[in-house]
Amino acid sequence: MLFGIKPIFWVLINAVVSFVYLFIISKILGKKQIAQLEFIDYAVGISLGSIAAEMATDTENPFYYYLIAMTIFLVLALVVSVFGRKNSFLKRLLKGKPATLIYEGKIDYDQLRRSNIDVNDLLSMLREKNYFDINDVAYAIFEPSGELSVLPKGNQKPVVLQDVNREAIEQSSLTNVIIVDGEISKSGLTEANQTEQWLFDRLSIGDKKDLQNIILATYDDNTDTFNVHLKNQ
Description:
Elements: H1 7-29, H2 39-57, H3 63-86, H4 88-95, E1 99-103, E2 106-107, H5 109-114, H6 119-128, E3 137-142, E4 148-152, E5 176-180, E6 183-184, H7 186-192, H8 196-203, E7 214-220, E8 225-230
Antiparallel strand pairs: 1-2, 1-3, 3-4, 5-6, 5-7, 7-8
Helix pairs in contact: 1-2, 1-3, 2-3, 3-4
């Protein structure tokens, strides 16, 4: 018990002080949407929240210990922010740099691996951007914030009034994913109503070992065409 004050009152005091101090720090660091947070911002925010929560319930140690720790995180975050703006090398080192996961319509396997993303993650992020067919994507850039920026191919860009004509618009359909990370998708083959032997014949594959160089293969049954992305382009 510090200064003869009951623990319950210390919890009340510490909780209010930690909240107010955390509010002040958030104002100093500036406003950012969740999607704009870079990894270092996210790590600092989690650390500050953890320290504030510990402070609110600790009735044994002086509260200013925690204020000092939070201040140190604040100062370091500001230093990183200032130096990151003034020095491009430090900015890349501390905050990372964008990675082009799809370049000219093809998956860049090396960038995918460096970003610790697998093909299913990439396809999921594309769907979140309303691109359900990877064939529609010309470039996809993985930003330091964790967001995926997508540039569609020319014929998939949003339609404006001057593009509208009287021709019927073709109904959309999902492309079958046949191979992912060197593994055949059984559901994809079933959806295409085909067999593994048909797949091997169409892609000129001798055996399953040849699948290991394929990151992703999709099949469009409307046009009877494959789109294959290789690890070694």
